[in-house]
Automatic annotation (TrEMBL):
Name listed for the protein in its UniProt record: Dihydroneopterin aldolase
GO MF annotation list: dihydroneopterin aldolase activity
Annotated Dihydroneopterin aldolase/epimerase domain residues: 20-131
GO BP of this protein: folic acid-containing compound metabolic process
Coiled coil start-end: none
Listed Pfam families: FolB (PF02152)
Species this protein is from: Hydromonas duriensis
Alphabetized InterPro entries for the sequence: FolB_dom, GTP-CH-I_C/QueF
Length: 139
């Protein structure tokens, strides 16, 4: 699912990637701009799809040390969501994206977050954005 314009060059780069993902990761997070949101953690759901260089994600010896471990992605979400109160979902997603992009094998990621208990008649409200590594070559 592309929700952000991607240049043809970046699309060609992503074709040479393998995706790893963490889907529907539920956490309690201290987040929100309103006073009533600052009194207790809120239920949130995170989704991350990371695009990893195929050369960094095609194991030769079937070993975990040859790929990006799912634990790294999950732990990154947990760490960034546990750093104290955050006002905006956008800020939290940016922090997660920044931390993931420190791994040179990760070329891009699509990250979304959702608050699931804001409105009684809505499953979730949230944000999502693409993040690209400074190591991403356009070709």
């Amino acid at each position: 699912m592309l929700t952000h314009p991607v240049t043809e060059e970046l699309a060609r780069t992503l074709v040479d990637c393998r995706c790893i993902f963490v889907r529907n990761y539920h956490l309690q997070v201290s987040i929100g701009v309103y006073d009533h949101e600052k009194t207790a953690p809120q239920s949130m759901v995170f989704n991350v799809t990371a695009f990893v260089k195929r050369t960094s994600a095609s194991p030769q010896h079937d070993g975990l040390d040859e790929v990006i471990d799912y634990d790294f992605v999950r732990n990154t979400i947990t760490e960034q969501a546990s750093t104290g109160h955050v006002q905006l979902q956008e800020t939290l997603c940016d922090r997660i994206g920044e931390a993931l992009m420190k791994k040179t094998a990760i070329l891009a990621a699509y990250i979304s977050s959702e608050k699931t208990e804001i409105y009684p008649d809505v499953d979730a409200i949230g944000v999502g954005a693409w993040y690209f590594s400074p190591h991403t070559s356009p070709v």
